[in-house]
Write a structure and sequence with these properties.
This protein is mostly beta strands. Helices cover 14% and strands 37% of the residues.
């Protein structure tokens, strides 16, 4: 009774004013064992028919947050709002409880957060002590995730599922989720080695997906063919919250409305249609329209300031990978009377940070360095006669005051540019250029030895069969690749002393050599995985999130790598010894199997001796020394050809 009275006080109910005898309960059954009355529920019949979900048992979906500030009641709501904002990205919060002191009404400095589902350790794979990478392959009916255990010269299977995807698989940008694409929508998987399904995103006739850089949102795409032959495809785009599965915004329209700019994906629509900006905060996304760049903010999923950014004749735009800055290219207008221009615009203020007019421009391509420190603009220009084109580059130093621009050209500015690539997290870039069957590869740095801010050429590698550049994710290593028509030739270059692996793959374009190979940084093939015929579809490394180390700590580790590597070198030796022992054991087993096989057939041979002698009239054919060998020549007519020849009898 004391508990009932206490609960009534909390609810503001005065029990002394309630006539308990006047309350009539409905007919009920009495439990003999307990003596309590059992009151029938209005929904009891429904509850008996339905399979109700069992309540989740345990504390796996509850988080305790400690070391919060102790605040008075007037700051309670503000603190709750801040904590919710910090923890809502990790799932849907269903209960938030921050206890208070009954006397002072102040908080205790901690709170309890309950999520709608158990919170899997989505980063468990990063806890591997040896920091081994993972990759996923799709081959035949199976999709498989492996550890790249290069030291053991073979991949280690993590998870295998049959019919895991209908179309393709895709890692999220930070490697947290694995997404599978199906006809009825997408699904994301993660957590421990079992890869549990975390969320479903319904979208009929789904064709393409794209994650935001911070993995908070997933864009899904589908298109339907027009009923009228002269019509255009109908495009449907949904933006989902990855953690809750909620549709944040739907876009629907014709393919013509969305076909401006970008590389063509499906149904004539560029993909991705939306380009994410503002770093991993996922605050903004944008798309290119006719004379506009439409920027949306994710707080309301509406146009920023309720209007698009009007830029007449805009042809392309690109976000800084780290900051809310847009670079835009506008071609020449009015027959060349109005020059082309490249502009840098700050979002959300729409302030123009820098603008550069360009003359006699044929085309421009923009390349951001992944730290957002530099922007390289490749400018293709007409000669004075406009019969040919030459190329130059303009380098924007984004982090420096007033964003200075430096112009530079190749030694032969008439060379065709085949490929351009920044070194990740670095200050170097590489360019493939040339017109012949073999190309040159030039390396540049935006820093000099005295740390002055100017572009300098490091070296040029002459005459290589290469048309693509692949930097290691951490920089330092680069592969010059001759893809497609250049027979898959690979050249490995090391610009520093770090270690990475490279994977090359041949998918189901033909029925030979399908599979993948893993290479070391110096071009040594470590192991290969072959798939028969046309059953290999996809290979993809699992991305890693950025390092938590500061640049200073990374530099200190790099400079003292020999000291840190002693432990791992010993581990490598132990693995080699273990591999050697395994190989010795394997060879010994093969030798023993051979001996058993020989003994088995020798025994059978001995058991059949009497049978052989009987067949040979009592002669023991096993005693080879009792026989003499003779050489006998036998003439055999192979064929006879008869042919009638005409002779001139009068000929002398």
């Amino acid at each position: 009774m004391d508990a009932i009275e206490a609960h009534a006080r909390d609810l503001g109910v005065n029990l002394s004013a309630v006539d308990l005898d006047s309350i009539a309960l409905p007919p009920a059954k009495t439990s003999v064992s307990s003596g309590f009355r059992r009151v029938a529920c209005d929904d009891e019949e429904i509850c008996q028919k339905e399979d109700l979900p069992e309540p989740e048992v345990g504390l796996s979906n509850i988080v305790v947050v400690d070391n919060l500030p102790v605040v008075a009641p007037k700051k309670y709501e503000k603190l709750e709002s801040v904590v919710r904002k910090l923890f809502s990205p990790y799932g849907a919060i269903v209960v938030f409880w921050m206890p208070t002191d009954p006397e002072t009404q102040k908080t205790h400095g901690y709170c309890f957060i309950e999520y709608n589902t158990s919170q899997e350790n989505l980063l468990k794979w990063l806890t591997d002590e040896k920091a081994i990478d993972q990759f996923v392959i799709w081959a035949g009916m199976f999709t498989e995730v492996y550890w790249n255990d290069a030291k053991r010269v073979m991949p280690q299977l993590v998870c295998q599922k049959q019919y895991w995807t209908d179309s393709y698989v895709q890692w999220s940008p930070l490697g947290t989720h694995l997404a599978t694409v199906h006809n009825q929508g997408a699904q994301v998987w993660g957590g421990d080695d079992k890869f549990l399904r975390l969320m479903k995103f319904p979208h009929p006739k789904l064709k393409l997906i794209d994650f935001s850089p911070g993995e908070r949102y997933l864009v899904t795409y589908s298109s339907e063919e027009p009923s009228n032959p002269r019509g255009t495809h109908t495009v449907v785009l949904n933006i989902f919250d990855v953690r809750t599965g909620k549709v944040m915004r739907e876009f629907k329209g014709s393919a013509d409305d969305l076909s401006t700019g970008g590389s063509i994906g499906v149904s004539g629509v560029p993909w991705p249609i939306f380009r994410w900006g503002g770093g991993r905060d996922d605050k903004y996304f944008a798309r290119l329209g006719k004379n506009v760049v439409s920027v949306y903010e994710t707080e309301t999923f509406t146009l920023l300031d309720k209007k698009s950014l009007k830029v007449e004749n805009v042809a392309d735009f690109s976000w800084s990978p780290t900051d809310p800055i847009i670079s835009m290219f506008v071609p020449e207008m009015g027959g060349g009377n109005q020059p082309a221009k490249v502009s840098l615009v700050q979002i959300p203020s729409r302030q123009e940070l820098r603008q550069k007019n360009l003359f006699s421009v044929s085309d421009c391509k923009m390349y951001w360095q992944n730290n957002g420190e530099y922007l390289a603009v490749q400018v293709d220009r007409y000669t004075k006669t406009k019969k040919s084109i030459y190329t130059g580059f303009e380098l924007y130093r984004i982090k420096e005051k007033d964003i200075p621009i430096e112009v530079f050209e190749l030694d032969n500015k008439n060379d065709k540019i085949i490929a351009f690539a920044w070194e990740p997290r670095g200050h170097r870039f590489a360019i493939i250029h040339g017109d012949g069957p073999k190309h040159d590869i030039s390396f540049y740095s935006v820093r000099t030895s005295d740390k002055a801010s100017r572009v300098s050429k490091l070296t040029t590698i002459k005459g290589r069969q290469a048309n693509a550049l692949f930097w290691s994710p951490a920089g330092c290593f680069i592969v010059l690749a001759g893809l497609k028509g250049l027979n898959g030739q690979l050249e490995f270059y090391n610009l520093d002393d770090l270690f990475r692996f490279l994977a090359t793959a041949v998918t189901s374009v033909h029925e030979m050599e399908n599979g993948f190979q893993i290479w070391s940084f110096n071009g040594e093939k470590i192991y290969s995985y072959n798939v028969s015929k046309d059953q290999f579809y996809q290979f993809q490394w699992r991305p890693r999130p950025p390092s938590l180390l500061t640049p200073e700590k990374e530099k200190e580790i790099s400079e003292n790598l020999e000291m840190y590597s002693k432990k791992y070198k010993q581990e490598d030796r132990d693995v080699l010894d273990e591999n050697f022992q395994h190989e010795r054991t394997r060879r010994k087993q093969l030798r023993e199997e051979w001996k058993r096989w020989v003994a088995k057939w020798k025994q059978q041979h001995d058991e059949e001796r009497q049978c052989r002698m009987a067949l040979r009239g009592g002669e023991d054919s096993d005693k080879e020394e009792e026989y003499q060998g003779k050489e006998v020549e036998v003439d055999e007519v192979v064929s006879v050809i008869e042919e009638t020849l005409a002779f001139d009898l009068d000929q002398d």
